[in-house]
Specification:
Elements lengths: L5 E3 L2 H9 L6 E3 L17 E3 L7 H13 L5 E3 L1 H7 L3 E5 L9 H9 L7 E5 L4 H16 L3 H22 L6 E7 L4 E2 L4 H7 L3 E2 L13 H7 L3 E4 L6 H7 L1 H5 L7 H4 L3 E4 L12 H12 L13 E8 L2 E6 L1
Parallel strand pairs: 1-2, 1-5, 5-6, 7-9, 7-10, 10-11
Antiparallel strand pairs: 3-4, 7-8, 11-12, 12-13
Helix pairs in contact: 5-6, 6-12
């Protein structure tokens, strides 16, 4: 078998490569791949076609305009792929906004001469499908699923520990996870499952289904006990900054989670938005937020913060 030369165009796939101890064979990455440490030294093979700076509403408008023009949101740097000559390219077919799509990669590879890499496309919507992707990558790259099973087992054990700890909780709070602040989008796909496994009752989105756009009336009607802010691609600081439209909305003070101080900001970019190994961490993060009396705090101030509303002057702050 020829030596592996892997290009991952998806942050979660890069994390799976790391989990399987294959990072030494990775020769290229996406512009968003930033984990594990040191991966940034590899050449970036993608770039956005829009300005990623600005408010959530401005970014939404730019992406929408690109998609309406039948253009891809991202570009694949074919010159870099030509130089790297990968044997395998990992991409996704789940969300054309989140990362380079399978169609983008296929078009790019067709324009390059001298290489014929195997393209693996991931499209998980649940934890089990994430574990399945890890197995598939191991099978394709290593010729065996055994390394995947060995890597998955402790992740599944951690998730099961959270489920066991919280399943007998006297109360399981209702939870709405916000994936985009303006316009409002609830977090779907695997996130409702994570909430359930962490001892919560997910609202406004369904397990295994794409993230839905919601209205303020939907949010007020649901009136969840807990609101978790996890905008796609944002760390905690950016999440807090981009949550200003929520705080300033006239309906915000009406929500039960706001009144009781159970609004949390998480690092969605590193955890919840990436369908990879750290979804196990995400379940643990949720469990300690939802059930602090049962689950000891390990991730607070690192992966999540309580959002405190200050009206005089009006600010979003952290409670530490």
């Amino acid at each position: 078998m020829l030596p592996l030369k892997i290009v991952s165009l998806l942050p979660s796939a890069t994390e799976i490569i790391h989990l399987l101890d294959l990072t030494e064979y990775q020769v290229g990455r996406s512009h968003e791949c930033d984990y594990p440490d040191g991966i940034g030294v590899l050449p970036a093979c993608t770039a956005p076609k829009f300005n990623p700076e600005g408010t959530s509403a401005e970014i939404h408008d730019r992406v929408t305009t690109l998609l309406q023009s039948a253009l891809s949101v991202y570009q694949v740097k074919t010159d870099i792929l030509q130089t790297l000559k990968p044997t395998h390219i990992l991409t996704q077919a789940q969300c054309e906004v989140c990362a380079v799509s399978l169609a983008d990669v296929e078009v790019a590879v067709e324009s390059i001469t001298g290489i014929s890499p195997q393209i693996l496309s991931l499209q998980p919507n649940s934890l089990e499908q994430v574990w399945g992707d890890i197995r598939r990558i191991a099978q394709e790259l290593l010729g065996s699923v055994e390394p995947a099973e060995a890597a998955i087992a402790p992740l599944k054990n951690r998730v099961e520990t959270c489920r066991t700890l919280t399943q007998d909780a006297l109360h399981k709070p209702s939870v709405v996870c916000i994936e985009w602040p303006e316009p409002l989008m609830a977090a779907g796909n695997w996130v409702p499952e994570l909430v359930r496994l962490a001892g919560g009752m997910p609202m406004l989105s369904k397990e295994g289904q794409h993230s839905p756009w919601i209205t303020w009336n939907d949010l007020v009607k649901a009136d969840p006990e807990v609101i978790i802010l996890m905008p796609c691609g944002y760390d905690i600081e950016q999440t807090i900054q981009e949550s200003r439209p929520l705080l300033d909305h006239s309906f915000w003070p009406l929500l039960r989670a706001v009144k009781t101080g159970r609004v949390y900001a998480v690092d969605g970019n590193q955890y919840f938005n990436r369908p990879g190994p750290r979804l196990a961490d995400s379940v643990e993060i949720l469990a300690e937020m939802l059930h602090p009396d049962i689950v000891p705090s390990r991730y607070q101030n690192q992966a999540w913060q309580t959002v405190v509303e200050m009206r005089q002057p009006s600010r979003l702050m952290y409670r530490v």
